[in-house]
Amino acid sequence: MKLYDVKLLTITCEILAQENILEILKKHEITGYTKYEVDGNGARGLRGQGFKNEKNIKIEVIIREEKLQDVVEEISRTQFANFAIVLYVSDVGVLRPEKF
Amino acid sequence: MDILQLIQANLLTPIILFFLFGIIAARIKSDLKIPDAISEFLPIYLLAAIGLHGGIEMRNTGFENMLVPMFVAIGLSLLFTLNHYQILRRLGKFNLFDSYALASTYGAVGAVHFSVGLSFLKNQGVSSEGYIAAILAVLEPLAFILAIFMTNMAVSKQIREKKKSFGDTDSNDIDVGLNQTKTKLSKVLHESITGKAIVILLGSIVIGYIIGEDGFEPIKIVFDEMFTGAIVIFMIEMGIIAGQRLGDIKKVGIFLTAFAVLIPTFNGVIGVLVSTAIGLSLGGAVMFGLLLASASFIAAPAVLRQAIPQAKPSLYITSALGITFPYNIIVTLPLLFALSSILHSGETIDLFNFLTGGLV
Hints:
A: alpha+beta; globular; B: 360 residues; mainly alpha; Na+/H+ antiporter like fold; 16 helices; 0% strand
């Protein structure tokens, strides 16, 4: 089995930032992502209780290394100051690199 | 009627008691929680009931007489938002973003306030004009749109001045800023108008208007008789969320705490006086005043986090939900009712003496 190296970008953020994140992904022509509602604790206290608007969301995107730099740069420049957000990148292997 | 007595009587209604119960449940860290689906469903249900009720009343009274109150409400709401901003910015020393976010939170209206008000009036056996539900729908996005517009204007002005001080006269960037403002505003406008709150409210008003009393009969049990019961369940949830935030009130500060109590009282009293002057009924004046006294805590975060992300949500949500909402449903509502009763009883009264006399 041959695995091809790509990057997995994982963004955990407040639900009200998700639209901005998805817009940035779209701008960089990334159409595929997976997202799910999550809760947890962090610098801004326990998140995910109470109103739906205060939940957190986790977005996973598989992305080629060439695009990664720009996307991460734009997210950190435009979103970090105002929203609760954590972002990390990991190495993953996929079978069909042409999909990403 | 004595205001204190009325407040006391109001305190012992199920709505208030369940709200306080929710706060206690949250404080003792109980795992009591209204399931997500239900707490998302209840605001939709409440708005549908408000809309139907309003639509049916409008069929009886017609539209023509709603125009004056509507425009007065719009004018007052915008005026109050600007007034809040001046108070917060100049006296409270809040930054531009927090000032506008808070100003619009208190300039906007709350559907939960409105539901509690309707149920309070029902309890007192008083009816109100149906078109106030339509005013609720129109006022909902208004204060936010004004605040977002003003914030963006202030920001682009700052950018312009900075540019000038660098001796850069290139106007392109300013145009870009203005265009961004426009797209932001049209996005907010679109999202508010197509948002679930306005859509269900307006839809129900239209349906209520079409079906009238006769058509309402078969669904009355759900949308009329169960109304107060549904609010009670929602109040448990509101109490729990308010209780979880009680610790944050320290962060809000004395100035904002005072603001969160005084401003709704002031706005509400003005609302009752003005609406009585333009001819609203006893109940109508209470609802009108309550609309202006209310602060938004469900719609506000969704709109403001997108449009003014620099503002701290902990300030506007905590003050609106943790301070203003309990204060309004416990104190302001009976106060406005007492004021409106006296104004409508035809006696001429000295308002100042009445207020102080009632409280002492």
